[in-house]
Amino acid sequence: MSAADVIAAIATAPGRAAVAIVRWGGPGAAAVAARCVAPWPVPPRVATRATVRRGDGSVVDDGLVTWFPAPRSFTGDDTVEFCGHGGSVAPTQVLARVIAAGARLAEPGEFTRRAVLHGKLDLVQAEALGALIDAPTRAVYHAARVQVSGALSTRLAALRDAMLEVEALLAYDIDFPGEDDGPIGRERVTAAVETALGSLQQLLSTLPAARVAREGGLVVLAGAPNTGKSSLFNALLGEARALVTDIAGTTRDAIDALVDAEPYPWRVVDTAGIRETDDTLERLGIEVSAQWLARADVVLLCGATVAERAVVAEAVRTRTEATLLAVRTKVDIVAASETRSVDKACAVSAVTGEGLDALRRAVTDALATRYPAPRETPLLLAARQTRAVDEAATELQAFRDAWTADALPATVVAVHLRAAVHALETVIGAVDSDEVLGRVFAGFCVGK
């Protein structure tokens, strides 16, 4: 890849659509446009009616062209965007004409990579753009939006600067031990390191919330056979995913589905009914249920009566550390006399929808309590970010321990500090490494 190349790609998703955008950019983008767009030139940053034409003058497509001269563009390069007809043929034909006019097909993430190299974005913001596009849930989308704004970048850059200041103090003390007030006070270095370490650990503390944002809080439905678990599962999803019959033991295996809720999505799991059985397949299903219960964040103890819920609560209590929510099922057919005034179960009907909203709020509150949303601390969404921040924290801890013990010369202990700074530099892209950039943009879509 060369920065002098004009790169081009379809910037919208494939498939049937009203419009599609073909984007090309680079130092020669205007020259390419002059060969295939009419009229050209056009006013900067103004959508102008235009056509893309072949060399013989015939029209490929007509639409709107917008010209973004450098450096006021997403990438910092001269950039042209043509918004034409959607579908599969029209944008492909436009792209082919642009390539024939002197551009080449862009690599995955190459536009964003150029934005990073030109200082329009840092590496954290670029990763967040990828997360924004691929976001499986609203929680990830919101977290990615925070990162795109630069909140995480600013925090990491401030941490790096703070550690560089400590490194400068050590360097001064090593090189000029007799200057001014004499050696640098050890407590001054220790205090600065403790502050930086606390900030790193605060970032790492967001990992559980980030995991739940991506994967969903695990909500497991538990109960005896025929207590309405599968019907409730379908009702929560709004579609029939689980087989529902009056035959006990119908659910032999766990079925899971993602419900995109806020602040965290749920991964709802319908499990086999818990009971003693000689049926081999059903017993295997119950063993699978136990595995889900062990991992659960919230368990819905399902039963139409107090007795049914008490039995399942007793069976589940030793198998999970999840938050337990009692759910009185089948309220549309089971008489209210079956329950007691002291019963705090959430009453629901999968048929009429009664109580479902209250149950959803209860699950949402349970997940929010279990995974408090970090205030003013952006989530670490990328595995690369997590590894680097964890490495920086580990190196900083090693420095602190050795420094406070005064067991090694400052020149030796400072190696840990330098490693911590380097780890943060790899996150924000202060280290110019083609390998790092390659890994970040390998998963991007073409045209972004």
* Number of DSSP helical runs: 15
**Structural class designation:** alpha/beta
Q: What percentage of the residues does DSSP assign to strands (E)?
A: 15-25%
Number of domains: 3
What's the end-to-end separation, in Å?
Answer: 16 Å
Q: Give me the side-by-side strand order of the main sheet.
A: 3-4-5-6-2-1-7
Low-confidence stretches: 241-252
In CATH terms, what is the fold-level topology of the largest domain? Rossmann fold
How many strand segments?
A: 13
The radius of gyration over CA amounts to: 29 Å
SSE succession = EEHEEEEHEHHHHHHEHEEHEHEEHHHH
Instruction: Give the overall silhouette.
Output: flat
Q: Architecture of the largest domain, CATH level 2?
A: 3-Layer(aba) Sandwich
Mean pLDDT comes to 83
**CATH class wording of the largest domain:** Alpha Beta
Percent helix: 40-55%
CATH superfamily of the largest domain: P-loop containing nucleotide triphosphate hydrolases
Note the main sheet.
7 strands, mixed
TL;DR of this structure?
It contains 15 helices and 13 strands. It has 448 residues and is an alpha/beta fold.
Report on the architecture of this protein.
There is one protein chain. By secondary structure, this protein is of the alpha/beta class. It folds into three domains: 7-118, 2-Layer Sandwich (Gyrase A, domain 2), CATH 3.30.1360.120; 150-206 and 379-428, Four Helix Bundle (Hemerythrin (Met), subunit A); 213-370, P-loop containing nucleotide triphosphate hydrolases (Rossmann fold, 3-Layer(aba) Sandwich). The protein has 15 helices and 13 strands. It has helices at 29-36, 89-100, 110-117, 123-134, 138-148, 151-175, 186-204, 207-215, 229-237, 280-295, 306-317, 356-370, 383-405, 410-428, 434-441; strands spanning 7-10, 19-25, 37-38, 48-53, 59-68, 79-85, 104-105, 217-222, 255-259, 266-270, 298-303, 323-328, 346-347. The protein has a seven-stranded mixed β-sheet. Strand 1 and strand 2 (19-25) form a beta hairpin. The chain starts with 6 loop residues before the first strand and ends in a 7-residue tail after the last helix. The relative contact order is 0.12.
